[in-house]
Amino acid sequence: MSKQKSLLQGLPAALLCLSAAISIYAQSSGGGKHNSRPQQAAPTTVDGESKTDAVKYSYEFSQPKFYVKHIVIEHDANGRGTVTFERLNEDTPVTEPLQLSADALGRISAAWQGLRFLESDTNYQADKQFPHLGTMKIGMERGERKRVAEFNWTNNRAAETLVNEYRKAADQAILIFDIAIARENQPLNAPKLMEVIESMLKRDALSDPRQLLKLLHDLSTDEHVPLIARNHALRLIKNIEKNK
Questions:
Q1: What is the C-alpha to C-alpha distance for residues 148 and 217, in angstroms, rounded to an integer?
Q2: What's the CA gap between 236 and 44, in Å, rounded?
C-alpha cells in the first residue's frame, strides 16, 4: 500500500511533465489491475520478414533526472510484449503487459521497414547533441542477428517516427497503470486523470485511444469514482468514438 501511495504522490504534475519531456526528446510535431481490453493486433510483416519469424523489437529511453527516468518496451512481430518503467526516487521498476493495436503496429512496422535495420549500419545520431533530453535505443533481434542503435537526437524520418510511436505507447501504458492504481487506492485522483486523458487526446499523444474505451466505460459506472470523473469519462468515450 505504501508503495502504491508513493506512486501517486505528485501524480497530475508528474504525468504532464512526463508527456512534455518525452515529446521533446522524441521530436514530436507496473502494476495495478487492468480494466481495458486492448485490441489484438493482426500478424504483420516487419523489415521484410514473414509473420512466422521470431523477431524481437525493443525501445529504451533513459534520463536519470526525469520523473520517469527509464522506459523499456519489448515486443514481438504481433505487437505483444511488455513495457517497463522506473520513476525517480523509486527503487523498483514496474512492468506491465503491452499489446500494440493493429493501427499502431502498422505505423511501427512501416518505420522499421523504412530503416531496414538489420541490413544497415546507419548512424541515426544527428550532428547536434542533446544528451540532457535523454538517450534512446532501438533494437532488433532475429536468430543470431542482433543490432542496437543509440542516439539522443535524430534527423532520420523513420527513426524519428519509430521513437515517437514508442513514446506514445509508453505514455498510454503508464497512464492506464496510474488510473488502475487510482481506482484501487485514491479515487479522488480520477478527475485529474480524466483531464490528462483529454489533454493527451487533443495533442495526439496516445498510441491508440480506442484501447481506452473499455476502461473508460468501466470508470463511467464505478460508484467509487467521483461523479465528475464518471461524467468526464462518458464525454471522452463520445470523443474517441466520434474520431474512429
A1: 40
A2: 30
In a domain, 64, yes or no: yes
**Residue 4 falls inside a structural domain:** no
Residue at 91: amino acid letter = D
How would you classify residue 144: left for phi > 0, otherwise alpha for psi between -120 and 50, otherwise beta? alpha
User: How far apart (Å, rounded) are the C-alpha atoms in residues 111 and 163?
Assistant: 9
Helix, strand, coil fractions of the chain, as percent rounded to 5: 45, 20, 35
Confirm if 33 and 180 have CB atoms less than 8 A apart.
Answer: yes
Residue 1 lies in a domain: no
| Cα–Cα distance for residue pair 25/171, rounded to 1 Å | 13
Number of compact structural domains in the chain: 1
Closest CA to 79 of 107, 118, 49: 107
The one-digit pLDDT tens for each residue of the chain (244 residues) are 444 444 444 444 444 334 433 333 334 434 433 344 444 444 444 444 444 469 999 999 999 999 999 999 999 999 999 999 999 999 899 999 999 999 999 999 999 999 999 999 999 999 999 999 999 999 999 999 999 999 999 999 999 999 999 999 999 999 999 999 999 999 999 999 999 999 999 999 999 999 999 999 999 999 999 999 999 999 999 999 998 7
Residue ranges making up the domain that contains 40: 9-242
Q: Which three-class secondary structure state does DSSP give residue 194?
A: helix
